[in-house]
């Protein structure tokens, strides 16, 4: 903790923080208010902030107009995004934690080399393999599995699990081994239940990144039936004439799942971000 | 046990990365009936010297550089200021932390749309009408996104807004590792608030700060989503804001020129690796004390 605040300093801190936070939150406020307003009042100068004529009409339009090309398939876009997030998060938790366990606890030939390889792969941002992947899988465009598959195995997740597993005292697992448990049983019955914080923070970070994923869908998806929400957001906002009320309602629906996850798992989230940074 | 992830990483990171290098030596076009032909270093030569191709590419590099040069120090300073303000025992401090962190969870495609409205060129745009009001009508409609002088500045502002909370959380974690006794000792020595900052806070978070700066530099070279969304439907000036990733995607996707796009990708990767290696080099001595 920093210096102990005097009452005056405390008041000043509150004042400064409140003003900053207010300015900072204005765009979010605008998003929520605008989503509740008739479209022609959204882009109407500062009165866009006035809470007049509020209604959920934009939401019902986005959710129900099943014939229109853009908003009509909302639940389909949502379904695609949820499915992709589910597959990438759960699949990723499985394979990356198993890989980290193998690398931190089991002894096998080539282990050091594989670990070095994984550290090297952490250096490779997805952006720098997007073009060759796009070329390699060009005939698989508009399939759901190609949207998920490249993101399940993740070097950074392996690294995060590896760091966590190394902090568990080996004696706990030794007891299990004496009782005759093999590595799989030891892993699933003992290590996994002990590692909830690691699983939570990796899951949340993976979910967040996957939910906003944009570059890969831009390259691989042209068919609206497999379009994830962020890509549809960009298509929807580019339409002429733009229907701002509905676009903002769509935006709120796009961000709501992450906000909910964030609200519930904030502690793990911040822990995950912070611990990965401090350990560097 | 490690096999599935290792296989996945080799298939989707290792192989395509090697493939990018190979493709960059070829003239490959998507949907072309001609077979790919070996091109040697021609793609790279064109990127840097062919007037038609190097123009946009070098512009993209310059834009990335401009973005990084502004975003890295400004966003880091802002995040540090916020982290220090938020590193206190105040009621509702958790709420404030959440508020500043909130935009981090917003997908960039949505952030771009919100700011498209705020920066809208008509006099009904949020920023324009606010300026109109405070200047007693002297400021009118200005096309923030479309004007080449302010297009990059707009992208910078919305990117900082979205990203500052992320750095703030990392720096906050760093600040909380500084022992409180150090501040008490400094206060006994009658150190001013500024002196405490310089002699206790800054040395205490040096490693974290270096990490944040390097991470932000790498991230700033990956800028793509917001530029793409706003160029494609938000009236953003394309030339003033195209980034290296934007250039790679449009070259591969719109011009079907895979060889050229791969060369851009390889250059992009080299930049990121150099930045990351500098990071490791700078951070390491601190960790090995």
Describe this protein's structure.
- The complex is a heterodimer of chains A (280) and B (289).
- Chain A is an all-alpha fold and 280 residues long.
- Chain A is built from 14 helices and no strands.
- Chain A has helices spanning 7-35, 39-42, 57-64, 74-104, 111-122, 127-136, 144-148, 155-166, 170-178, 183-194, 196-212, 215-220, 229-237, 244-279.
- In chain A, helix 3 (57-64) packs across helix 14, helix 9 crosses helix 10 and helix 11 (196-212) runs antiparallel to helix 14.
- The model of chain A has no long low-confidence stretch (mean pLDDT 87).
- With 289 residues, chain B is mostly helical.
- Chain B contains 14 helices and two strands; from the N terminus they run αββααααααααααααα.
- Chain B has helices spanning 3-23, 42-49, 51-86, 93-101, 108-118, 126-134, 151-175, 180-188, 193-204, 206-221, 225-233, 238-241, 244-253, 258-287, and strands at 26-27, 37-38.
- In chain B, helix 3 runs antiparallel to helix 10, helix 3 (51-86) packs across helix 13 and helix 5 packs across helix 11 (225-233).
- Chain B is globular, with a radius of gyration of 23 Å.
- The chains are: A mainly alpha (280), B mainly alpha (289).
- Chains A and B meet through helix 1, helix 4, helix 5, helix 6 and helix 10 of A and helix 1, helix 3, helix 4, helix 5 and helix 6 of B.
Strand % of chain B is: under 5%
Pair with the most extensive interface?
A-B, 96 and 106 residues
Helix content of chain A: over 70%
Helix content of chain B: over 70%
The multimeric state of the shown protein is heterodimer
> Taking Cα atoms only, what radius of gyration of chain B do you get, to the nearest Å?
23 Å
- Low-confidence region ranges of chain A: none
Q: How many individual β-strands of chain B? A: 2
């Amino acid at each position: 903790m920093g210096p102990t605040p005097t009452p005056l300093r405390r008041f000043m801190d509150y004042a400064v923080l409140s003003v900053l936070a207010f300015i900072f939150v204005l765009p979010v406020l605008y998003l929520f208010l605008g989503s509740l307003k008739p479209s022609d009042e959204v882009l109407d100068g500062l009165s866009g902030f006035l809470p007049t004529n509020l209604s959920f009409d934009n939401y019902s339009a986005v959710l129900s107009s099943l014939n229109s090309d853009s908003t009509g398939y909302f639940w389909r876009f949502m379904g695609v995004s949820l499915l992709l997030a589910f597959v990438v998060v759960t699949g990723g938790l499985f394979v990356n934690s198993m890989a980290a366990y193998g690398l931190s606890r089991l002894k096998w030939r080539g282990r050091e080399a594989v670990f070095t390889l994984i550290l090297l792969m952490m250096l490779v941002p997805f952006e720098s393999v997007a073009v060759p992947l796009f070329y390699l899988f060009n005939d698989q465009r508009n399939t759901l599995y190609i949207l998920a598959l490249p993101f399940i195995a993740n070097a950074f997740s392996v690294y995060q699990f590896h760091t966590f597993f190394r902090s568990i005292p080996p004696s706990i697992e030794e007891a299990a081994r004496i009782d005759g448990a093999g590595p799989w049983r030891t892993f699933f019955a003992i290590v996994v239940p002990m590692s909830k914080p690691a699983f939570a923070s990796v899951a949340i970070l993976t979910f967040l990144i996957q939910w906003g994923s944009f570059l890969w869908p831009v390259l691989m998806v042209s068919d609206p039936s497999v379009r994830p929400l962020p890509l549809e957001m960009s298509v929807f906002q580019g339409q002429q004439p733009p229907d701002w009320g509905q676009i903002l309602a769509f935006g709120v629906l796009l961000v709501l799942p992450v906000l909910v996850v964030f609200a519930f798992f904030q502690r793990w989230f911040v822990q995950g971000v912070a611990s990965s940074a401090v350990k560097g | 046990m490690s096999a599935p992830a290792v296989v996945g990483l080799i298939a989707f990171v290792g192989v395509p990365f090697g493939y990018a290098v190979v493709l960059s030596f070829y003239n490959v076009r998507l949907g072309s009936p001609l077979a790919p032909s070996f091109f040697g270093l021609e793609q790279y030569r064109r990127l840097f010297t062919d007037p038609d191709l190097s123009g946009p590419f070098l512009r993209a590099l310059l834009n990335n550089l401009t973005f990084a040069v502004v975003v890295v120090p400004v966003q880091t300073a802002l995040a540090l200021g916020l982290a220090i303000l938020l590193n206190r025992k105040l009621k509702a401090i958790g709420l404030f932390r959440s508020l500043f962190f909130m935009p981090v969870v917003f997908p960039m495609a949505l952030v771009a749309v919100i700011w498209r409205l705020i920066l809208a060129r008509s006099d009904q745009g949020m920023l324009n009408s606010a300026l109109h009001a405070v200047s007693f009508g002297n400021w009118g409609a200005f096309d923030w996104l479309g004007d080449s002088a302010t297009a990059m500045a707009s992208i910078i502002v919305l990117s900082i807004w979205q990203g500052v909370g992320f750095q703030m959380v990392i720096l906050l974690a760093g600040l909380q590792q500084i022992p409180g006794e150090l501040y008490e000792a400094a206060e006994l020595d009658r150190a001013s608030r500024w002196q405490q900052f310089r002699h206790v806070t800054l040395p205490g978070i040096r490693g974290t700060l270096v990490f944040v700066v390097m991470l932000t530099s790498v991230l700033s070279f990956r800028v793509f989503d917001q530029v793409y969304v706003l160029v494609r439907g938000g009236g953003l000036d394309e030339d003033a804001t195209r980034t290296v990733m934007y250039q790679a995607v449009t070259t591969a996707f719109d011009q079907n020129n895979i060889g050229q796009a791969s060369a851009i990708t390889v250059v992009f990767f080299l930049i990121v690796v150099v930045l990351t290696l500098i990071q490791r080099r700078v951070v390491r001595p601190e960790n090995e004390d």
